[in-house]
Amino acid sequence: MVTKKVYPFEDGNAEMKMLLGGKGANLAEMTRLGLPIPCGFTITTEACRAYYASGCIMPEELLQEIGQALTRIEEAQAAGFGDEQQPLLVSVRSGSVASMPGMMDTILNLGLNDATVLGLAARTGNEAFAYDCYRRFIQMFGDVVLGIDSIHFERLLEQNKRKYARASDQEITAEEFKELISNYKRLVEDRTGQSFPQNVHSQLKLAVEAVFRSWNNVRAKVYRKAYGIPDEQGTAVNIQAMVFGNLGNDSGTGVLFTRNPSTGVKELYGEYLLNAQGEDVVAGVRTPKDIAELHKEQPQVHEHLEELALLLEGHYRDMQDIEFTVEKGVLYLLQTRSGKRTAQASVKIAADLVEEGIIDQKEAIRRIEPAHLDQLLHRSIDYSMSPVPIARGLPASPGAASGRIALDSDTAEHWAKNGGKVILVTAETSLDDIHGIIAAEGVLTSRGGMTSHAAVVTRGMGTPCVCGCETLSINEELRSATIGGLTFQEGEEISLDASLGQVFRGSLSLNEPEITPELLKLLEYADTIRSLQIYSNADTPADAGKAREFGAEGIGLCRTEHMFFAGSRLPIVQAMILADSLEERQLHLDRLLPMQQSDFEAMFQSMDGLPVTIRLLDPPLHEFLPNLEQLKEREQQLALSPGTGEELEQVSNTIKKVYSLREVNPMLGLRGVRLGILYPEIYDMQVEAIFKAAERSLHKGVKVRPEIMIPLVGHPNELKQMRELVDNIAGQVMCGEFKGFSYKVGTMIEVPRAALLADSIAKYADFFSFGTNDLTQMTFGYSRDDAESGFMNTYMEQKVLNDNPFQVLDQDGVGKLIEWAVTQGRAVKPFLKTGICGEHGGERASILFCHEIGLDYVSCSPYRVPFARIAAAQAALNADMNRQRLDAEVV
Ligand code: PEP
Ligand code: MG
């Protein structure tokens, strides 16, 4: 079967992007709309693929099809390709499916040779113009087709101008261009051993081949990799009759955006140059004028452009980036496409287009790019001065920050209290760095990955954080940090772009985040579209308040261990853990109870009317223990000082106790529910605090909806036992008027066994919350702390894994367990509430997956909530579209 490889513009349309490329499809569409488009045709992407498949041979049939299409242009233009009196000149441009601006090649004025240039001169009555076109053509053809760098042609041009004392190209005479052309031709002969091709058909064949080849030039390959464009797609080639913007001052060329691409404001935005061809604008030799000037210089053209801009924007239902040329007062459009825009403009344009009735709310939500949202919701570096990063790490918590380096949390806190801005720079953080993290503008660590302590805590607080910066090393003695080969003393300034994982020297200026009225509008639209509920992870009333402000509909995870670490509580917690008897432990727990109770009261108050999921204590006990090295140092000191026997004995005992609590593999040791089973008095205290807080809040008129969550359950009996514990305490505390008070008891599903036995577990659970951090860790058998600072990079580089599973949910493995657990759980309890509270709850692809498998909610950090609201709406729209596609296929 012979398939058509060449489409005249009249035969295509906007839907044919895959075959005709973006530019070709739009030129065809504009031709169909009757707009002023120079006549032309498109060689398909399929032809390009066939060219590569055949080992780069131009098939005879393709050349014939090109010839036929060319005849149509000749007829329309009343000109002949290679005709010496009425020569037809064409442009040859690349045009891929996805926009790849400037990545591939273009040749203008093709069809000129020693004979046709005379015809062009005669036809236009402008000899200098004709020879200028010819020299431009040789230069472009020489560069793109013959591989002679443009710089060599530029040098000859400069020499020529110097020789005749010409300040600008416009002053060069025809005779001078002729001399320049001889020099150009000599250059071609010297470099290629052949004379410049005079046969116009050979010129065209070679140019088409060169554009095909430009699909695989280095910059195009790099661009494709960066934007995920498939290598096998190939480029289309557009061949079009030339129109000339350089035929005098009633001609020109320019670029026009239908709205301001930086701000999104509805105004024509662009620039143009009179008496110029497209490459003059790009080359930057002459300064283009603001499009508003055209209104004065050529009012009719400006008016016509305004009309066309409105028409194209209405037709494509989006802001357009339009290229145009004016030839002797007549306007031609050379291209239109959806214009690239800043984050701010993108949100404004989407919201405005809804207001103007051009698109509906769903379309506006569909168009929002996640990267744009990230930019808008966090501070960002002002890149106008093009700062160069000195080091890179993982973008662990988005945003930007600048400040003085502080090498430990105490210093960070101290400097911040005195009004300084600090960046906490450290190997890694632990629970006792919390005061330093709170004080810091940003955090930079050399170790740890996307779910390391620093990453999780900073994301929760909305503090920018770059983790795993391998070129960071710290010299504690000299109080200095070496970052990317540069050494900084503590106190010197650095900046972080944590959205990109980059570190800069010095204090850079920052752009503030912007929740504009337009963004608020889009978030409201999203709320009417999504079915997933958006909860937030929050450990403090302040975080809960933030989450609510950003639109969270509940707290999906309150990690109570973070409360244990606050302020003066640590010594009590440590004493509780080190207690020698139950009685002694109970004494310390009694002191902790009112503190926990007030924490929960404040949380309930912040979330009045909304569910608050409280997870009972999870981390390994040893994380709370005193520092062993410090204890040993103290022991040595005491041993050398007479009369300190009692303290020495105490310290030695503590050391023994710390040793006895040490585990070989704490992540798989005494944590989560195991802690509750071995030391039920700890969970007793927490549950009592929750219900006492509930009771007091209810008295104050607060609507309390506690959901008590048991971590790390792997066996149904674990949950059974803990549920009994919770129900017992609830029964004791909630008596009188609050008897029968409704609360939920559920479990995290973060051990694969729990997912596999979800039906048995569901018997004792009102809800499942998938802790995908641990579930990923335990399904892969990767320690999350070690993987990300160790082998994960190599795994990604070698494409063993496409994504870091601690960032993007592994749908094939971990996802399968989740899906299974949801189905099994709901088989036992059809209305079992299900959600996710691991770090994946704020990641777009993972949110799409959660929607697909029918979870009730995702829970993410407060600052991620607006992002999750939009992503959940996009998930619902995606699912709708897939359903419609399937329905259509069935029909
Ligand atoms: C999880 O494992 O996904 C989780 C939320 O718990 P944590 O990160 O506190 O272990
Ligand atoms: Mg966990």
Overview in brief:
The protein has 36 helices and 31 strands. The chain has 891 residues and is an alpha/beta fold.
Q: What structural category arises from helix and sheet content?
A: alpha/beta
CATH superfamily of the largest domain: ATP-grasp fold, A domain
Number of domains: 5
What small molecules are bound in this structure? phosphoenolpyruvate, magnesium ion
Q: Give the class-level CATH name of the largest domain.
A: Alpha Beta
How big a fraction of the residues is strand? 15-25%
What does this structure look like?
The chain is an alpha/beta fold. The chain folds into five domains: 236 residues, Dna Ligase, domain 1; 87 residues, ATP-grasp fold, B domain (D-amino Acid Aminotransferase, Chain A, domain 1), CATH 3.30.470.20; 132 residues, Phosphohistidine domain (Glucose Oxidase, domain 1, 3-Layer(bba) Sandwich), CATH 3.50.30.10; 140 residues, TIM Barrel (Alpha-Beta Barrel), CATH 3.20.20; 36 residues. Helices cover 48% and strands 16% of the residues. It contains 36 helices and 31 strands. The strands form six sheets. The protein has an eight-stranded mixed sheet. Strands 24-25-26-27-28-29-30-31 form an eight-stranded parallel β-barrel, surrounded by six helices. Strands 1-2-5-3-4 form a five-stranded antiparallel sheet. Helix 5 runs parallel beside helix 7, helix 11 packs across helix 12 and helix 19 crosses helix 36. The radius of gyration is 34 Å and the shape is elongated. It starts with 5 loop residues before the first strand and ends with a helix. The model has no long low-confidence stretch (mean pLDDT 92).
